[in-house]
Each structure stands twice: as C-alpha cells, then as structure tokens.
Write a structure and sequence with these properties.
The protein is 17% helix and 31% strand. It is an alpha+beta fold. Strand 5 and strand 6 form a beta hairpin. The longest helix is centred in the last third of the chain and has 36 residues.
C-alpha cells in the first residue's frame, strides 16, 4: 500500500472519526484500474453466519470477475481468479454465487475487513472494495485496520501511516492498546503517522468496564516482503572424465593402435587400387 495518510496533529475527535471513516471506506486512487465507491455492511454479522458480497449491478459487459482479500488486488491474497479457480486467499469456505458474487460460509471474527472485486470488461478494468464486520460470540473486540489486517498481519512501507480501530459491543468501555504485550495508548483509534522501524511489532486492543475485560486478536505490523529473482548463473559442471589405469589402460592403448593401423592399411589399399585402375586405363 503506497497511498500515504497524513492526519496531522491537533484534530478534534469528530474530525478524527470522519477522517478514519473515509480512510477505511475509500481505496487508494493510485491504482491503474478505475475504482468504484466502496461500501460497508451497516450491521455486524454473528460468527457462523453467511456473508454475501455482491458485485456492482450497474456495469455492463463483464467478462471476468476475481476476488481478493484486502484493499488491493494482490496475487498472494487472491480468493478466486478470473477463471474461477481458488487462489492463495481461499480458506475452503468461499464460493462464487450468481453473477460472480462472493459467498463466505461460517464466518468468524478473523473474516472481518475488506474484500476487493475486480471486474474485467471489453473496455476497462474496474474494482470495488466491500467491507464486512463480524461480531465475536464471546464479546471479543474487533480490530479493524488500514492497510488491511490479513490473517493477523499488516504490511506497510516506512513513512506511510497505519490506522487501527477497536470496535466492541461492551457498554461504557475503557479502551487501550498494547504494543508487544505492554500498555501503549488509550482510545478507540490508534494512528501511527509515518511508520518507522521502532513501530514494527505486535498490537492488540483491550476493552474493559466494571464487569469484564476482553482483548482483541493481535496483529503484527511488518514491512512488505520483496521478492528478488536470482540473477547469478549456475556454475557449469565439467564433463566427467573416464579414468583407466593398470592393465585396462594398456589394453585400451593397444586396441587404439591396432585400430589406427587397420585404418591406415585400409586407406593405403584404397589408394593403390585406384592407381592400378588408372594405369590400366591409360594402356
């Protein structure tokens, strides 16, 4: 994710909420494809339910449909390919519905987050991001993040921002965050401006009131993995050398000499026969 987020300092809580909502719902405009407005499910789904993510109905001439986990169409998060084959992001609970919609059965809190559909038409490539929210059955708080939290991991480049939000059904909670197991910040939102190396690690949010205390599932922020192709040429192995010693070596040399003598004799005989024919012809 290369779209930066500069929230600035000294903003009021209302502005922070508005900014975070826009950030979580809008995908980056730096993509080469045309992105449609994002949408989010207004209600929480319960664990074990079925989530249905439809495709836009106002696009004509759709040739292929593919689904990805997160805000971006990355190969490693592909759920279904344009040909309809399961990808690395397929968990075994996803199926394709009518008109290319995505059906997720037996959802869990880990399925919360963003899903991107890419539509290929004869004229252009368009994408849209959908969001679903699943309420944990044990009142475990839900951690939403931008860039997307994919299976407990957030990948972001240095000097870009990470936004996390803690959602809970507990009334009048006190919310705080932990970083690598230690208390870190207080509040519903945690905004990391200009990510640095010291910010890499594991985060979780904790909610508590007078009656209970619950912690969300942790997420780990790391740098994107760069895949480098090896350009070093493989060493060329020399051809194996046949080594012969002792009596075998003498026999091989003798056989070679005999063969060479037979070859010379054959050539000499052929030359003599040719000269004899020419002499007879002149006579």
């Amino acid at each position: 994710m290369r779209c930066s987020l500069d929230t600035g300092f000294g903003l009021s809580p209302a502005w922070k909420r508005l900014l975070l909502t826009g950030t979580l719902l809008a995908s980056c405009t730096c993509s080469a494809s045309l992105e449609l407005p994002s949408s989010v499910s207004p209600d929480f789904l319960t664990e074990g339910a079925v989530a249905l993510l439809p495709v836009p109905s106002n696009i004509d001439g759709v040739l292929t449909t593919s689904w990805f986990r997160g805000h971006e169409a990355r190969p490693e998060t592909m759920i279904f390919s344009p040909e309809g084959f399961p990808g690395p992001g397929h968990t075994g609970r996803e199926t394709l519905g009518t008109q290319g919609s995505l059906l997720i059965r037996n959802v869990t809190a880990q399925d919360s987050g963003s899903y991107t559909v890419v539509l290929e038409t004869s004229r252009e490539r368009r994408s849209k991001t959908e969001q679903i929210r699943i309420k944990a059955s044990d009142d475990q708080p839900l951690l939403l993040a931008y860039p997307s939290n994919i299976w407990g991991a957030i990948q972001c480049e240095l000097n870009y921002s990470v936004v996390m939000q803690c959602l809970t059904s507990i009334r009048n909670p006190m919310i705080y965050w932990t970083f690598n197991g230690k208390p870190f910040e207080i509040g519903e939102y945690l905004i990391i401006r200009k990510l640095s190396l010291k910010d890499l690690g594991t985060y979780a949010c904790v909610v508590k009131n007078n009656q209970e205390e619950n912690s969300s599932k942790s997420v780990t922020i790391s740098l994107p993995q760069i895949k480098e192709d090896s350009t070093e040429a493989e060493p060329i192995q020399p051809d194996p050398i046949l080594r012969v010693s002792g009596g075998g070596a003498f026999a091989l040399i003798a056989a070679g000499n005999i063969g060479l003598m037979i070859l010379i004799a054959g050539i000499s005989f052929t030359i003599v026969q040719g000269l004899r024919r020419r002499v007879r012809t002149y006579r």
